[in-house]
């Protein structure tokens, strides 16, 4: 299936674990897809975010830009997969 889809440079992945995959399954799929940038989404708490980022940092660099915006130009993508947690406006402690 991955061969049919082709190259994926940017991957948005739900991490809420309610009706989606476990962190281990998500990380397994990130490795298989091998995107340049992964942006976690669909989370329900700071604990969920911290749990996912803790699990992911064993395999990928984790970036936390102090913004909710990421400009991802193809020519400036990282050489290997990196996780970017974009700062949502509703988190009061600024993760």
Structural overview:
The protein is an alpha/beta fold. The protein has helices spanning 2-5, 23-33, 46-56, and strands at 10-14, 37-41, 62-63, 82-84. The longest helix has 11 residues, at 23-33. The protein is globular, with a radius of gyration of 13 Å. The N and C termini lie far apart (35 Å). The model has no long low-confidence stretch (mean pLDDT 88).
Which overall shape is indicated by the principal axes computed on the Cα atoms? globular
Number of beta-strand segments? 4
Any idea how many domains? Answer: 1
Give the neighbour order of strands across the main sheet.
Answer: 1-2-4-3
Quote the distance from N terminus to C terminus: 35 Å
What is the makeup of the main sheet?
A: 4 strands, parallel
Q: Which range best describes the helical content: under 10%, 10-25%, 25-40%, 40-55%, 55-70% or over 70%? A: 25-40%
Mean pLDDT: 88
Structural class: alpha/beta
Question: Which tags fit this structure?
Answer:
95 residues; alpha/beta; 3 helices
Short account of what is shown:
The chain is 27% helix and 16% strand. With 95 residues, it is of the alpha/beta class.
């Amino acid at each position: 299936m991955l061969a049919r889809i082709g190259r994926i440079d940017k991957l948005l992945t739900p991490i809420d674990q309610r009706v989606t995959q476990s962190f281990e399954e998500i990380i397994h799929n990130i490795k298989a897809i091998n995107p340049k940038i992964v942006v976690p989404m669909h989370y329900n708490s700071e604990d969920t975010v911290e749990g996912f980022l803790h699990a992911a940092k064993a395999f990928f660099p984790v970036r936390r830009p102090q913004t909710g915006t990421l400009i991802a130009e193809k020519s400036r993508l990282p050489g290997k997969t990196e996780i970017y947690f974009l700062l949502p406006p509703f988190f009061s402690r600024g993760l």
